[in-house]
Amino acid sequence: MSLALAGSFSLYGLVRKLAPVESLSGLAVETALAAPVALGVLLLGGWEQPVWGSTSRDTLLLMFSGVATALPLLWFAQAARRLRYSTLGIIQYVSPTLQLALAVLVYGEAFTSRHAVTFACLWTAVALYAFDGLWAARVPAPTPAGQGT
C-alpha cells in the first residue's frame, strides 16, 4: 500500500507539473471529476451507516475538512509548477518526518531501532542527493577542448 501511494502521488505530481493548466483551474477539474463518486458515496452509503457526523459539530468538522484538504493540494500544484521536480521530491520528505515526530513525541508511539535505522538511511540518502546538487551547482562545467574563456 505504501508503494502504491508513493507511486500514485509521484505520478499525480508529474501530471500537475506538466499539465498546461493553472493550479486553481486544475483543482477545479479534479474536484469535478471526484464529485460524482463522492456524491454516490454520500447517497448510497448513508442508508447503511451515518455518512455525516453523529453530532452537528462533527458534521461541520467533516465539511470543513474539504478546505483543509483542498488548500494543501492547491499549494502543491503551485509549487510543482515553480520548482524543479527533484526539489519538490526532496521537500516531500518533510511531511512524513513531521508526522513521525508528532507520533513519537506527542502520541507516544514506539520508535524502535528498526525505525531509527530506516529513518537514518532515508535522510542520509536525501542529504547525499542534496549535497550532490549543491556540489554540482558550485563547480563550473568543464569547457570543451579548444574553447577557452
Element layout with pairings:
Blueprint: H1 2-18, H2 23-45, H3 56-82, H4 85-91, H5 94-105, H6 113-138
Helix pairs in contact: 1-3, 2-3
What features would you describe in this structure?
The chain is mainly alpha-helical and 149 residues long. 75% of the residues lie in helices and 0% in strands. It is flat and about 75 Å long. The termini are far apart.
Index terms:
149 residues; mainly alpha; 6 helices; 75% helix; flat
Task: Please sum up the structure shown.
The chain is mainly α. The protein contains six helices and no strands.
Q: How far is the N terminus from the C terminus?
A: 53 Å
Structural class: mainly alpha
How many helices? The count is 6
The largest sheet is:
none
Radius of gyration over all CA atoms, rounded: 22 Å
Number of strands: 0
Low-confidence stretches: none
